[in-house]
Amino acid sequence: MNRPSLDSYSCQVYDHVVLTSLALAHAPSGSMDGKAVRDNLRAISQDGEGKRTDDAVEALKLVTSGGRVNYDGPSGPLEFADNGDVKGVFFRYEQVMDGKLVVRKIG
User: How many domains are there within the chain?
Assistant: First the structure.
């Protein structure tokens, strides 16, 4: 994202857009709705399935050429539990010091 420091909200939003786009690209032709996203999301972001990449353009090229991809973006690994929740979510803890936000921990 060409920034020296990334905040978790920007990373999550970026990944949401990329995952939605990849799921729709993976869906059968003409499938452009929430069901298509739900049904194809795990196919483009599961551990051990396809080429691991954090590059959205590379992932889209792989998916549209019929390849398998495991997209993990700037918000971290994107693996899903059976109920649809993201597993292994990272949190960023910041503290105001001298009037500035300082990262204390990411974990």
Answer: 1
